[in-house]
Write a structure and sequence with these properties.
This protein has 257 residues and is mainly α. Helices cover 66% and strands 0% of the residues.
Length: 257
């Protein structure tokens, strides 16, 4: 959320319009089947991801995934995640730090400013853990860290405030931001399956399409809160089908969600 005005570049509207045509085509195929296959659901998720990026592309600021993820002015979760070396230790002292700003734990990124742990100080640490896991995956992936250093360091002179991050962290920010976009679209799968179980395939298909077209998903800058959308959809689907089918495993998974 936190809407950023698009300031449309007219010719770029062709990208989301093409994706809307694909969505109409998907809808026609889905209407011809009794129930949408897993392969078609994967296709719908891909259209959803492309549609989110396509809508961002229409504005003068272009793709905002990387900027919003790394922007330490936003008081988000990525900067604190880069300051955590030992996640187990961080979680062990997490409760003791509330509602402080972790000033003793991590120095400020820029002299004279806060250390930007305030969002973590007032929210559960789940989003920080998400970015921390992405960062660890990038650091330990073969080839990726070296590739990041080669590409990013070549442009470091024009990166401005991004220079507070290492190349590994910038690459992790890109992966994490795109991951949030993918997660927002993945929520369409349990939403569709819940619709099929509760109201039938026609209602499920309409709900899935309306979800991908919702302004809160396409027009607003992607943030880690989209993780909650996926978890909520999974929770509702597992709970409903767990009670209907009297399935203890599904209810147990709903409890975990």
């Amino acid at each position: 959320w936190q809407y950023v005005p698009l300031n449309l570049i007219p010719w770029r509207l062709g990208v989301p319009l093409i994706l809307l045509v694909l969505l109409v085509w998907w809808n026609r195929l889905a209407r011809q089947t009794l129930e949408v296959s897993n392969r078609m659901l994967v296709g719908l998720v891909m259209i959803g991801i492309a549609l989110q990026l396509g809508v961002q592309f229409t504005g003068t600021y272009g793709f905002s995934n990387l900027d919003r993820t790394l922007d330490w002015w936003y008081y988000g979760y990525f900067w604190p995640a880069t300051r955590v070396d030992d996640l187990r230790h961080f979680l062990s002292i997490y409760a003791e730090q509330q509602p402080a700003s972790f000033m003793d734990y991590s120095p400020p990124p820029v002299s004279g400013f806060g250390n930007f742990f305030s969002r973590v100080s007032t929210h559960p640490p789940g989003f920080l853990i998400y970015y921390w896991l992405i960062l660890q995956g990038v650091k330990h992936a073969p080839v990726l860290p070296e590739l990041a250093r080669t590409i990013i360091l070549a442009h470091s002179g024009s990166m401005g405030w991004l220079n507070i991050y290492t190349p590994d962290e910038i690459l992790a920010g890109l992966v994490g931001g795109l991951g949030v976009t993918a997660i927002g679209s993945l929520a369409v799968v349990p939403l569709y399956k819940l619709g099929v179980a509760a109201y039938g395939p026609d209602t499920a298909r309409r709900a899935a399409i309306l979800y991908l077209l919702a302004p809160s998903l396409t027009l607003f800058t992607p943030v880690a809160d989209q993780l909650l959308t996926l978890v909520s959809a999974l929770l509702l689907w597992l709970t409903y089908t767990g009670f209907v089918r009297q399935s203890r495993p599904r209810l147990a998974l709903a409890g975990l969600a």
